Amino acid sequence: MGIATKYSIDYHAMANGHHSLDVKVDGELFREMESNEVKDAACDVHVELDKMESGLNLQVSISGKAVVECDRCLEDCDIPIDFTGDLAVRFSDTVSDYDGEQLWMAQGEELSLAQYIYESVIISLPYRRVHADGECNPEMMARFTPATEGAEE
After folding, report:
1. What is the pLDDT of residues 43-73, one digit of tens each?
2. What is the mean pLDDT of the chain?
């Protein structure tokens, strides 16, 4: 099962109204998207979906962890992910790119959340990705000397 299928929502088969969906995200999504940042992941995605004739309103919650390279010691580091976002999908004959608030798509087109989930995890990562103090690889940390050590006065 590819990511296109795994993260797709078959809204055509849904009646108008409220629906809930859950999906698990792992490293496969980030490998398929050729991510240079996320090595692996273990996240739960919960989607609250309201279907209407004119489109879909989704509330997406993502919680779990992503594995990235520690900026200090370069070892794998687990970063907690906690994201909540809204996605408005509108049906139109004129399709345009997602603008950060709305996604315009043709009525019969398949809705895949793969790109949205991927981007949501990436923007949830902190700018500085490091282990908690004392958890970095001690061998690697021993190679560093403070910038002030050995400086001439």
Report:
1. 999 999 999 988 999 999 999 999 999 998 9
2. 88
Where do the structural domains in the chain lie, given as residue ranges?
A: 3-142
Token duo for residue 25:
């995200």
CA distance 89 to 51: 10
H or E element: which one contains 118?
Answer: helix 114-124
**Sign of the alpha-carbon dihedral angle for 68, 74, 75, 80:** negative
Q: What is the pTM of this model?
A: 0.85
DSSP conformation letters of 41-100: EEEEEEEEEEE-SSEEEEEEEEEEEEEEE-TTT-SEEEEEEEEEEEEEEEE-SS-B---S
The angle at the Cα of 99, spanning 114 to 115, to the nearest 5 degrees, equals 10
Q: Which two tokens stand for residue 76?
A: 């794998």
Q: Which residue has the tokens 């989704």?
A: 58
